[in-house]
Structures are given as structure tokens and as C-alpha cells.
Specification:
Length: 204
């Protein structure tokens, strides 16, 4: 199997900037749809959404705050450059997710169509962010850190966290919204699983 040329994965500052702006804008727009439908998602974004729903707090501020404890794990696991890129992506999501609703609203948004489309957009956004060596922080960083420390697979840590998150959501949200949320999460993970190929490129 042909491996990627390492030189092909070197990006300029401008290329990283456009990649992060595109990726975070796509994810933020997906979050606008998600919140309009009253759905949740996985990882720290899902945790921030549940907190914002329960306490009527702005999602952007909550998302920024819940990610703060995880930067230390990112620094220990992947270095300062990764942490700075991740911090920038989290900050952009936090800002975009609060600004975008002032420019768009949905008179009609079918929950099944919305869940699928926001899954596609989130997957595409995350792919762009990963491609340029960043992330949206949170549980993914902690999972990799725990994998190094304990050999417990990172994927299982993320799966366990999401299972707990959706279990809590089932007590807060109506069942149809939880099911639509699961549909969106499945689409996101399928997009990443199919397209995030290390044999085609190297990502953090």
C-alpha cells in the first residue's frame, strides 16, 4: 500500500488558517442546526450542549470553558503546537456558534434531514481540522493520554463517555430527540471512519 509523502502534509500558516476557518465554520453551522432541533452530540460539544440546555447558558462560552482542563493532557501527549492549534479551533467554534444564529434561522427543518446534514457538515469540518493538525479538544485528548498511560484503548474511552452522555440526555430530552441525535452522531462517525485514512495523509 502506498504511503503518503510527508512533504504533502506540510502546510503554510495561511493554509492552516483557511483549513481551520473552514472546518470550524462547518462545525459551528452544524451546531446551529443541532440547537435549532434541540439535539445533542457526543464528546465535549455534547456535554456543553447539555449544560447550556439545562442552565440556559450560551453554548459558546460553555464549550470554551469545558475544554480548558484538557489542554494540559494535549500538551503532554502531543506538544505545544497541537495545543495552540486546538485552542484556536475551540475559540473559533465558540465565537462562530454564537454569531451564526444572527445570520440564519430555519422556518422548517425536518429532524431526520437535519440530523443527517449536520452529521455530514460536522464530519467534513472535523476532517479539515484534523488534516491541518488540530482538534476540538476535550475527551479525545484525554482518551489518547489515558491510552498511553494505561494501554486502555482511546476509542473505548470515547465510546464510554458518549454512552454516558446519551444516557443522561435520555433523562433530559424527549426520546425522539435522543434518537435523532444518535442518527447525527452515527453519520459523523461514518464520515470520519470512511475518509480519515492515514495511508492517504498523516493527521494529528
Amino acid at each position: 500500500m502506498q504511503t503518503a509523502d510527508p512533504k504533502a502534509d506540510t502546510h503554510s500558516l495561511l493554509e492552516d488558517a483557511q483549513g481551520f476557518i473552514f472546518g470550524t465554520a462547518m462545525c459551528a453551522f452544524a451546531l446551529v442546526m443541532l440547537r435549532d432541533l434541540g439535539l445533542v452530540t457526543g464528546q465535549t460539544a455534547g456535554l456543553a450542549l447539555l449544560i447550556s440546555y439545562m442552565f440556559k447558558l450560551p453554548f459558546g462560552w460553555v464549550f470554551f470553558a469545558v475544554n480548558l482542563p484538557f489542554y494540559w493532557f494535549g500538551y503532554k501527549r502531543m506538544g505545544l503546537k497541537f495545543v495552540l492549534k486546538t485552542f484556536a479551533c475551540v475559540a473559533l467554534i465558540s465565537v462562530f456558534s454564537e454569531v451564526f444564529p444572527h445570520f440564519v434561522s430555519f422556518e422548517t427543518l425536518n429532524p431526520v434531514f437535519g440530523a443527517i446534514m449536520l452529521g455530514f457538515m460536522t464530519g467534513a469540518g472535523l476532517m479539515a481540522i484534523f488534516r491541518h493538525g488540530g482538534s476540538l479538544g476535550g475527551i479525545g485528548i484525554l482518551a489518547l493520554y489515558l491510552q498511553d498511560a494505561t494501554k486502555f484503548k482511546a476509542g473505548y474511552v470515547q465510546l464510554a463517555f458518549d454512552a454516558c452522555l446519551f444516557a443522561v440526555a435520555a433523562f433530559i430530552l424527549p426520546l425522539p430527540q435522543v434518537l435523532y441525535s444518535l442518527l447525527g452522531a452515527v453519520v459523523v462517525n461514518l464520515v470520519i471512519a470512511i475518509n480519515h485514512r492515514r495511508d492517504r495523509y498523516i493527521a494529528m
